[in-house]
Amino acid sequence: MSHHTPHVKTRGGGKAAVGNVGRPPVSWALPGILFFAVFAIVPLAIAVYLSFCRWDGLNSPTPAGLDNWTRLFKDPEFRQAAWLSLLLTTISWAFQTPVALLLGVWAAGRQRSRAVLSAVFFVPLLLSTTAIAMLFHALLDPNFGVIKEMGPWFGIDPNIMGTSTGALLTVAFVGGWQFMPFHTLIYQGGARQVPEVLYQAAEVDGAGMFRQFFHITLPQLRHTITTSSVLMIVGSLTYFDTVLIMTKGGPGTDTTVLPYLMYRTGFQTYDLGYAAAIATALVVVATALSLILVRFSGFGNMRSTREGM
After folding, report:
1. Which of 260, 276, 281 is nearest to 57 (CA)?
2. What is the DSSP letter of 64?
3. For a tag site, which of 38, 56, 184, 245 has the least CB within 10 Å?
4. Closest CA to 78 of 40, 39, 51
5. pTM of the model
6. Distance between CA atoms of 20 and 14, rounded to whole angstroms?
7. What is the C-alpha to C-alpha distance for residues 97 and 187, in angstroms, rounded to an integer?
8. What's residue 299's pLDDT?
């Protein structure tokens, strides 16, 4: 007797299989586990160890007990950097999420121009962060950049990078400009998995495009939003090359976020033990925020939205 796996037609026109399927053996995950252990767990363990040591990068590390951590919690520069990192993360999330969600839902449709426009929109994701930072640094140069000529037309101060608010917002914009296509792709995939039958039923009930979006699309994408948000939080908390190239932590220390403070402490003052403590604290903060988001979003209890259909 043959077994037929039922399918449900989705928003993107494809079919998604419904039903229980056997899980692959654990051995399939061994390459990924080994890769993660070698390139993530081991370096993290080394950083944690060095956070309890004094090390200048040349001589052998010497035990320092809790000195680095005691200094960390008393350091006003660390507290400012932590606040700036959280502020940058919040701005980046508030800027990227609505735009990426709307673009992702649009890109999941069947518009004639969708494929071409989507391909053009995804180009920034293919460029390196360093190249993009250098590009915007040149464009926003108050003496020679495009901002000098075009800024006054839009009421923008050509020296926008010379102000604390302007520099922070610029870093958030540049990061969003590059990585928003990635999150758009996540939302596009999620929107294409929404069963078409839900929209058909809504149309029968007389629901328009906006009601369908707020009552069907958004609820169906709640776990996709959580996934995108976790990746966005981790990415925003680890902004480094953009800050290094565009602002160098300035003006003053107004864009000195935790990764840049870690770099400056470790590779400019050669206090690598304290830099390791900053790095470890950054990992703890990023992990805690991610777990809190997953816990309160209900992502950990996620179930299939097609069960029983």
Report:
1. 276
2. -
3. 38
4. 51
5. 0.85
6. 19
7. 10
8. 62
